[in-house]
């Protein structure tokens, strides 16, 4: 898989991902490019300079900022590993994503989750965008740092979380609990769906509480990634 752009490549290097090779377009300069070369040397990752014609053959050159990395296919952790990674000073804090099939939306959600200190993200193998170079690029490299579990059945995964003492809270415009009244101190897994379809009914049934975001304008809905970011940061704010 290729990842495009200076920041995603820097974050992949920092996260010690298995990078096979980095390609830099001839003539590309800047402090971030020098940082990439330094990190690559430290990690033993070869860097190759390509002329514009060869570089453009790698695809999506308009988004690459002169840097492309060839990375090993993304490897997810198991749900059991994620549950077992308990932080002593921070109750378990997870995010599950359902029905988000747009890779840019998923990338934005992963970025918000990583910035908010989420311990892991749970994605269904179906009913979700795969982790592609577009997701990595849109996440600004966050996909390289955050733990991601791919599960065959999201409903069953949420039930396992509940058995482990994790509170499962879904996001819904018609939810019965205001986001501002959310208990952010207890172990929690927030569940977000797409802005078009929302959470599937079977996933809604697995949620112990449905959270709504208060609205004061004429538009009554938010983009899925924005909605996720607001509630993630509300949980984090209450833990400060």
Quick tags:
single chain; 60s Ribosomal Protein L30, Chain: A; Alpha/beta knot; seven-stranded parallel beta sheet; four-stranded mixed beta sheet; 10 helices; about 20% strand; elongated
Mind explaining what this structure looks like?
This protein folds into 2 domains: 2-71, 60s Ribosomal Protein L30, Chain: A; 79-239, Alpha/beta knot (3-Layer(aba) Sandwich), CATH 3.40.1280. The strands form 2 sheets. It has a 7-stranded parallel sheet with strand order 7-6-5-10-8-11-9, with helices on both faces. It has a 4-stranded mixed sheet with strand order 1-4-2-3. It has helices at 6-14, 31-43, 52-56, 61-64, 79-84, 103-115, 133-138, 154-163, 201-206, 224-239, and strands at 2-4, 19-25, 47-50, 67-71, 93-97, 120-124, 148-151, 167-171, 177-178, 188-192, 209-212. It is of the alpha/beta class and 240 residues long. It is elongated, with a radius of gyration of 19 Å. It has 10 helices and 11 strands.
The count of DSSP E runs of length 2 or more, i.e. the number of strands, is 11
SSE order: EHEHEHHEHEHEHEHEEEHEH
Strand content: 15-25%
Which regions contain 5 or more consecutive residues with pLDDT less than 50?
none
The CATH topology of the largest domain turns out to be: Alpha/beta knot
Instruction: Categorize the overall geometry.
Output: elongated
The CATH superfamily of the largest domain bears the name SPOUT methyltransferase, trefoil knot domain
Q: What does the average pLDDT come to?
A: 90
> For the largest beta sheet, what order do the strands appear in spatially?
7-6-5-10-8-11-9
Give the helix level as a range of percent: 25-40%
Number of domains: 2
The tally of helices reads 10
């Amino acid at each position: 898989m290729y990842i495009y752009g200076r920041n995603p490549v820097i974050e992949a290097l920092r996260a010690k991902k298995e990078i096979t090779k980095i390609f830099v377009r001839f003539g590309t300069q800047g402090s971030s490019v020098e940082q990439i070369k330094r990190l690559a040397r430290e990690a033993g990752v070869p860097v190759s300079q390509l002329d514009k014609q060869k570089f453009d053959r790698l695809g999506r050159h308009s988004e690459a900022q002169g840097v492309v990395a060839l990375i090993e296919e993304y490897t997810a952790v198991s749900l059991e590993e994620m549950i077992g990674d308990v932080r002593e000073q921070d109750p378990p804090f997870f995010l599950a994503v359902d029905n988000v099939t747009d890779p840019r939306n998923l990338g934005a959600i992963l970025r918000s989750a990583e910035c908010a200190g989420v311990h892991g993200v749970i994605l269904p193998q179906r009913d979700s965008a795969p982790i592609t170079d577009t997701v990595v690029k849109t996440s600004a490299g966050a996909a390289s740092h955050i733990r991601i579990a791919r599960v065959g059945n999201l409903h069953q995964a949420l039930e396992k979380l509940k058995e482990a003492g994790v509170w499962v809270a879904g996001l819904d415009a018609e939810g019965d609990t205001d986001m501002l009244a959310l208990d952010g101190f207890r172990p929690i897994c927030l569940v977000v769906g797409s802005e078009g379809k929302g959470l599937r009914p079977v996933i809604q049934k697995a949620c112990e509480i449905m959270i709504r975001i208060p609205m004061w304008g004429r538009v009554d809905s938010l983009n899925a990634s924005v909605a996720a970011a607001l509630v993630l940061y509300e949980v984090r704010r209450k833990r400060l």
